[in-house]
Each structure stands twice: as structure tokens, then as C-alpha cells.
Amino acid sequence: MSLEDAFDKYELEEFRDAFNSFDKDSSGVISTLDLKSVMRHIGENPVDALVDDLVNQIGAGDKETLTFLDFLAIMAKKMGKGETTTETEDELIEIFSFTDSNGDCLISIDELREIIHERRKKVSDEELNELLKKFDSGKDDHVDFEMFYNIMMETA
């Protein structure tokens, strides 16, 4: 799957227009300093730390310019699209721990649904229900970390 496949044609058109509006010399690149402005142009309101983190996540932290594909990779990360949505085990532990507010090492099915809908936009309730059956741990409407991890990896 190409990076462009992660977006619909309207998103790609919007991103291309925004990118091109900051590519003043039509060289196919923008300054990394312009990235925040391009993101604002499409309705995002990124903070400096987030922009820096996104640039570093795609491996462009040492570059002074970004191509359109670099920009798409950044937007895919920001929007949780495509192959860029797979969290590390440490990140999943952090998400699970944050959600497990009472410290019983379980989260509710409703909390899992919220996480899935936030982080895995293309997973339907029906698909999630099938995964819950597949990885059922018998915890009465709750999910332990192992089940959470398996479901997150299956939906990545």
C-alpha cells in the first residue's frame, strides 16, 4: 500500500494544494520551517513540539526541506492512517495503563472501543466484536493487557 492510498482523493487534493501554496519555486519541496504553516492551511493547529516529533518520527529530523511524500507521511502519522499506526509495545503499555485508572490491570470493553475508534479509524464495531470473540479472556466485559495488545496488533 502506498502512502497516497491512506487518504481519499479529497484529502490528497487538499494536501497537495496546501503543500504547493508553500512551494513557491515549484521545486517539489518546502522548508521544514513552513510545515506548521502548511498544517494550519489545512485546518490543523499543531504545536511546535508535535511538529518536531512528527518530523523526527518519519526520519526527516535532520533535513531542512520536506517533499510532498514526507508531508503525507507526517499527515498519516498525525491522523493515524495507513501503516504508520502501529504503536510499540511500550506505547501500548502506556495507553493501557492510562486507561486502567483504578489499577486492576483491566479496562472495560467500552474503553477499548474508544481507543480502537480513536487509533484505528477503519475498524468497525462488527470487526471489533469478532476480535473480542477471537481473543476472549472470560473477564466479563473487561480486557486484560494481553487481550488489548493482541487486538491492537490485529487491527494495526
Automatic annotation (TrEMBL):
Which SMART domains does the annotation name? Answer: EFh
Query: Which keywords annotate this record?
Result: Acetylation, Calcium, Metal-binding, Repeat
- Which residue windows are coiled coil? none
Q: Repeat among the record's keywords?
A: yes
Q: Which domain of life is it from?
A: Eukaryota
Q: What is this protein called?
A: Calmodulin
Membrane-traversing stretches: none
| Cited PROSITE patterns | EF_HAND_1, EF_HAND_2
Q: Which residues form the EF-hand domain?
A: 10-45, 87-122, 123-156
Give this protein's Gene Ontology molecular function annotations. ATP binding; ATP hydrolysis activity; calcium ion binding
Q: Name one GO cellular component term.
A: myosin II complex
Q: Which Gene3D superfamilies match?
A: EF-hand (1.10.238.10)
